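User: My instructor asked us to take a sequence, write out its structure as tokens, and then describe one feature of it. I'm not sure where to start. Here is the sequence I was given:
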Amino acid sequence: MMEDPARFVRRKTVMVAIAALVILCLGWTTGCSADRRASPDRGGTMTSSNSSSVTASSANPTLSAGSGSPTPSPGSASNRSGGVAPPPAGAAFDYQLGGPYAPPNGVRVVSRDRTAPPAAGLYNICYVNAFQAQPDALDWWRSNHPDLLLHRDGRRVIMDANWNEALLDTSTAARRAALATIVDAWIDGCAASRFQAVEPDNLDSFERSDGLLTAADNAAFAQLITRRAHADGLAVGQKNTTELLGQRASIGFDFAVTEECGAYDECAGFASAYDGRVYDIEYSDSGLAKACAGWRGRISIVRRDQDVSPAGEDGYKYGTC
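Assistant: Let's start with the prediction itself. The structure tokens for your sequence are:
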């Protein structure tokens, strides 16, 4: 959900002559992002972007879209312990998709873009835009995987008008499997960076698909990438989408990240479904007041500015109940 992004560019360049040594000694390096911000799934909030152009090669399945860095195999991250640990219920939470910064005192759970480093000593959720293509990644998708973009009559790409993002095509098992090879690589990157969980965004893209996708299509794709995340030792958060609360167990969701559940009167369903493991972002003072009045102490609630700006930037807002 959120608005027109302001992108944060994060690159690590490695000379060709020493690339093999760097990969051998240090594992893998994080490249530029195809992801950025909180989702436009409410159509009214804005977010900052922290990504640059996509340069990944479609010929190499070990490269993730938006990154020129090798991706580790599933399960290679050192945070695996034979299971997944969801974030602590009721913990103070911060939403840092616009760029990382030192979390406010008392914060125990942080969500950051997959290209950002986790916050030391905290529970970290890795943001991945799993169901739509970033605007600056669209050329990459058109060049390498045009068949994985959702089209009307094989011609017009279906767009999320609020974000100028192309929808990815989850309508068939074959396309879901092909998409999973790309998104799974991003998830592997989250695990290798030592995040503890992943937040796949735009789960509700079927609502913007002109009837070409169904909730069942996206649920099936969510199940695929959730299996990969669990194999990597990562918990998985359901992003908004009350329509899929009844399928949370079959999909494999472990907690929820909600945007404006107070403002939209949706907190009750999520709180009940996830036994309080709900991490809600409100983008208005009125939404914060409403969420706090009904749900203080029962779910985690944070007030953020619509651009999810880093601390110290113009417009930055952070508050709790």
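For the description part of your assignment, you could build on this observation: Residues 193 and 249 are 27 Å apart (CA to CA). Try explaining in your own words what that tells you about the chain.
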